[in-house]
Specification:
14 helices; 2 domains; six-stranded mixed beta sheet; eight-stranded parallel beta sheet; Metallo-hydrolase_Enzymes; Metal_Hydrolase
């Protein structure tokens, strides 16, 4: 493979390069021979979904005629848009799943993600008394189908209670049986402690998840503290305490990470308490990462009570990812979570668009901020799910093993429809030559591709 006239963003000056890759190794890297007026392309590390649900995409936008193989979900479209409604309607949707339906929607998510520049993801699949192991079996097939394009890390996920309600024990046994019978295909254990019906059961959920992940040598991933109630218990502190009690840093596989998603409750706490939490994480050397999920969080959080007049001053709760990294030294990144279902009934799941959102969400408008936000959907996202970033250094060296990269294409001219009788209507295009150009103004999907 030859890449000609590309920009490597951390090379000094405005140098452009020609690269030749042979047998998976970068053989040559030379200053380009292309003329200065030939548009250059920009080469970047690829994107990563650190948190996305593989069994639930496009439930509301599947747009095919219902059949025995492909159910209709249109009656489950949001009415109030509340979190309770989303949980209830998703439970109804799960009762309609078929193997063909899960494979089609999952394939569409993986294909779209790869077209957007994603080469790795942590994919959640729910296992409970309704679904059994059907979503996991579909994920295993999808992982095999796309193994040459996307590294799919499967998370066996307990969305529903595993200790409370009449189904808690069955939900828990479904996951434990899946780990016993299909555990070789599972990389991560995930749970949702806040859905339990009492705080003691939420703590039991956390304790069970830690013990089970350590027993099976898995990464650990919590949906946690999904509220904006400043008086509620901050369960992250319980997670840290139980990780210490179970001696994660001594007894667990040290290649495995712990991830906390959502955690909007953290935005209600004073900075001193967050600083104390960050200090505990560092003191214990915990591989703890936070994932902000703005597309879902902004849709779900800060809603007024049902039948209440919608106040104009209401919180928009999602993790302050940039501040967590810059001000508190925590490990954090950004994820898509859901696409086209009750929790996020909009969007395409594009990580670059998510990074662009971050400029406004976090008021992060400097060149350095742009580089940070890009890392939140790239290298920091891979760090969170325990994948190596070796080989993705933006300053590439001859002799390095090549790994797939994200190529952003530039064109010289934009061609528009001319007035009748006039010549072609051409407008000089703005070249994108740095990360800020990508994050401040994300390119169309058609102008990016994974190379290698």
């Amino acid at each position: 493979m030859k890449l000609q006239n590309v920009v490597l963003t951390e090379e000094p000056g405005d140098a452009r390069w020609d690269l030749e890759i042979l047998d998976g190794v970068l053989q040559t890297k030379e200053a380009t021979k292309a003329a200065r007026d030939v548009p250059s392309d920009i080469l970047l590390p690829p994107l990563c979904h650190p948190h996305i649900h593989l069994d639930k995409p496009y439930i509301f936008t599947c747009n095919h005629a219902p059949s025995d193989r492909h159910p209709d979900y249109s009656d489950l479209a949001p009415q109030s848009g509340s979190f309770g409604e989303a949980l209830a309607n998703t439970s109804k949707a799960k009762g309609r799943y078929t193997a063909e339906d899960l494979h089609l929607r999952g394939s569409q998510l993986l294909a779209t993600s790869h077209q957007q520049g994603v080469t790795s993801m942590r994919a959640f699949v729910e296992l409970d008394h309704v679904t059994g192991t059907l979503p996991l079996q579909a994920a295993i097939r999808l992982k095999q189908d796309f193994s040459h394009l996307v590294h799919v890390q499967i998370c066996a996920f307990a969305q529903d209670p595993v200790f409370s309600t009449e189904h808690g024990e069955k939900n828990r046994s479904t996951i434990e049986t899946a780990l016993r019978d299909l555990g070789s295909f599972v990389d991560v254990l995930g749970s949702t402690p806040y859905v339990e019906q009492s705080e003691p059961d939420s703590i039991k959920n956390v304790d069970w998840a830690i013990r089970t992940a350590m027993e099976h040598g898995l990464h650990l991933d919590f949906h946690l503290d999904y509220n904006l109630d400043s008086s509620a218990t901050f369960l992250v502190e319980s997670v840290i305490g139980l990780l210490e009690e179970h001696q994660w840093t001594r007894r667990a596989d040290q290649t495995k990470t712990i991830v906390i998603g959502h955690c909007s409750h953290l935005t209600t706490l004073p900075s001193g308490r967050i600083r104390d939490m960050a200090s505990r994480v560092r003191q214990q050397s915990l591989p703890l990462h936070f994932v902000g999920l703005p597309t879902s969080d902004l849709f779900m959080m800060g809603r007024p009570a049902e039948k209440q007049t919608r106040p104009y001053s209401r919180p928009r709760g999602t993790l302050q990812v940039a501040s967590m990294i810059q001000d508190f030294g925590l490990s954090a990144c950004l994820g898509v979570n859901n696409v086209g279902n009750a929790f996020t009934p909009y969007g395409t799941g594009d990580p670059l668009q998510l990074a662009c959102w971050g400029v406004g969400l976090y008021q992060a408008g400097t060149v350095g901020d742009a580089e940070l936000l890009f890392s939140c959907v790239s290298s920091r996202a891979r760090d969170a799910i325990g994948l190596s970033n070796v080989g993705y250094e933006r300053v590439l060296k001859e002799g390095c093993r090549w790994r797939p990269m994200l190529l952003i294409e530039n064109v010289k001219m934009m061609s528009l429809k001319p007035k009748p009788g006039h010549a072609d209507f051409l407008i000089p295009a703005r070249p994108r030559i740095s990360i800020k150009d990508i994050v401040w103004d994300p390119p169309e999907t058609s102008l990016r591709s994974v190379v290698g």
